[in-house]
Amino acid sequence: MKTLVINSGSSSIKYTVINLEDQSRLLTGLIERIAETESLHRYSLSDGSTQNAIQPIANHQQALQLLFATLSSTKVVGNDGLFCIGHRVVHGGEKFQQPTLITDSVLAEIANISPLAPLHNPANLLGIEEARRQMPDTPQIAVFDTAFHHTLPDYAYHYALPANLYQQHGVRRYGFHGTSHAYVAKQAALLLGKPLQETNLITLHLGNGASVSAIANGVSVDTSMGMTPLEGLMMGTRSGDIDAGIIFYLSRCLNLSSQAIENLLNKDSGCKGICGENDMRAIHQRAESGDQSAQLALAMYAYRIKKYIGAYFAVLGQVDALVFTGGIGENDAWLREQCCENMGLFGIALDSENNQSPTRPSGLISQTNSKLAVLVIATDEELEIALQANQSLSIKQ
Predict the structure, then answer these.
(1) In this predicted structure, what is the pLDDT of residue 396?
(2) What span, in angstroms and rounded, lies between the C-alpha atoms of 185 and 194?
(3) Which residues on neighbouring strands pair with residue 13, listed in sequence order?
(4) Is the pLDDT of residue 79 over 70?
């Protein structure tokens, strides 16, 4: 049962072919710098061999054509074909709360809600449309980042704005990184030896984009990202939570357009705004050499996370584990230590040695006498998309 997972971004396409019988990766690839003269395509096969090629790729259509040509030339997809194709779609609005078989009407609905995620959904649609042209007879499933958070109670997803903005325009909290939070929640329950339906977790997906979720009895009840992926934690280039009045100030006093403000908050803020850098490894290097702006960026980043941890303890009441995932969450021992420092009130006692070298892909980094488990779990959004797509298709059949 081979499943192709496609994550089509604004200037890149990530893809992988997974054999769900043993969950092995048969092919993993990345096409980036689309629409540039020196686009890069690199991929690796299950035997460890890799290929890298620099060539002009004019648009997403050419990129997808290259992707499917690679499936054929590597013989990863032969006469047995693909069971299905799973597409990551960032925003599902209120309509899409489960993985969904893609039809013309579903495509139209995704396009209709694209204003909710103008930086993401249009690129997701380009990937879907070309994949359907390339393989029209293969079932294709949309898996939505927002779907895991559809269980938020109304008092958590409503904003304190005029009710008609929600009723007529869908202005509410949706949450993102849902496939990652869903995957690590299931893995955490397995590690704890508890049914997911009886497990309370605070999951931290920390990468260039970052979010935290409060999970009660296996379902999301609150999350830091909101109507868009801009709200919540401080991120690589995104501001996270700010006073909304700042937007009016920037418009009124600096004469910035709405587009300029949107770009500022999404692309030039966060760690980049504070120290000019959004790669956490480079920020650490600069901080260790005495760079005060890098030290400030790290302190702010950890502080914002810690505030959300405390808030979600209050939301859940009882917590079984704190889970770190994502590129930063899985690899930054200093950050994990900062987030857990002076948290004995919540029963957190970190094991310094395990924190420095956590077991891969999943491991316990809290002390044996810690009242609350602290876990590092490598996320696998591609596998989660493949599993959800296959499950959805199997149910429909």
Answers:
(1) 60
(2) 11
(3) 8, 31
(4) no
Backbone φ/ψ region at 131: left (φ over 0), alpha (ψ -120 to 50), beta: alpha
Active site annotation includes 22: no
CATH architecture for segment(s) 2-144: 2-Layer Sandwich (3.30)
Residue 331 has pLDDT above 90, yes or no: yes
Whether residue 5 contacts residue 88, with contact meaning beta carbons closer than 8 Å, is answered with yes
What number is the average pLDDT over the span 134-148? 95
As a whole number of angstroms, the distance between CA 327 and CA 274 comes to 20
pLDDT of residue 202: 98
Say yes or no: domain 195-381 is CATH 3.30.465.10.
no
Is the CB of residue 206 less than 8 Å from the CB of residue 270? no
pLDDT band at 81 (very low <50, low <70, confident <90, very high): confident
At 32 the three-state DSSP class reads: strand
Tokens of residue 335, six digits: 């950050």
- What distance in Å separates the CA atoms of residue 38 and residue 196, rounded to the nearest whole number? 46
How is the beta sheet containing 100-101 ordered, strand by strand?
A: 50-55, 39-45, 24-32, 12-19, 2-8, 84-89, 140-144, 100-101
Strand (E) positions, 126-225?
Answer: 140-144, 201-206, 210-216, 219-223
Please, which contacts does 277-280 make with residues 24 or more away whose CB atoms are closer than 8 Å? 278/208, 278/236, 278/237, 279/236, 280/236, 280/328, 280/332, 280/335
| Average pLDDT score over residue span 264-272 | 96
* Run of H or E including 6: strand 2-8
Residue type, 389: A
Average pLDDT estimate for 218-242 = 97
Burial of residue 264 (number of CB atoms within 10 Å: 0-12, 13-18, 19+): middle
- Answer yes or no: pTM beyond 0.90: yes
Q: What share of the chain is helix, strand, coil (3-state, %, to 5)?
A: 45, 20, 35
CATH 3.30.420.40 in the chain, residue ranges: 2-144, 195-381
Catalytic residue among 104, 145, 279, 320: 145
